[in-house]
Amino acid sequence: MNFILFLIIGAIAGWLAGKIMKGRGFGLLGNMVVGIVGAFVGGLLFRAIGLASYGFIGSLVTATVGAAVLLFLIGLIKKA
């Protein structure tokens, strides 16, 4: 059950990050990948600045912030 919740949070976070970063989205599987990688990036960023998140909403915020940062960095690399 936790794995399914993890995938749902990843999909929602990837979709939200795509909307925040003015993207078109990447489809269900692409949004999941962006959201899951974003969860790791967000976790690293939040720990580095001393923040913690708990529960579904906290996990969603962390993953969304991380995914938005990831998309921003990918955009910088693609322009270079």
UniProtKB/TrEMBL annotation:
The keyword Cell membrane applies. InterPro entries: Transgly_assoc. PANTHER family: UPF0410 PROTEIN YMGE. It is found in: Cell membrane. Belongs to the UPF0410 family. Its main location: membrane. This is GlsB/YeaQ/YmgE family stress response membrane protein. The chain crosses the membrane at residues 28-49, 56-77. Keywords: Cell membrane, Membrane, Transmembrane, Transmembrane helix. It is a multi-pass membrane protein.
